[in-house]
Fold this sequence. Notes:
Helices cover about 20% and strands about 45% of the residues. By secondary structure, it is of the alpha+beta class.
Amino acid sequence: MKEAYEFLKEAKTFYLATVEGDQPRVRPFGALDVFEDKLYIQMGKVKKVSKQLHANPKVEIAAFNGEAWIRIEAVLVEDERIEAKEHMLESNPGLKNMYSATDGNTEVWYLKDATATISSFGGAPKAIKF
């Protein structure tokens, strides 16, 4: 999991794919956190992505760091604990001007049953399960 986290941090922007009915939806993200040995992402409850995840928590994440790319298949699990939200905000201080752990809007989700595949041109793919 740490290797996937480091890859995503290095890439700075990753793309989260969800499903809305029969339509795929993809959008950029950047906020990540490791809390209690789990990889977390954050979003606002008022956003469409939140509604999509509550209906179907299966996701794919993709990012490119300039040399290689990562694809992660996972199920997202919402963590409603204030401690998890606070940790995310402390790890990503730029979010603090838009979110707080107690605002009723901040959501944090961790990746479960994840398989990350790191690939590059000319190299063998590397799979990581976490």
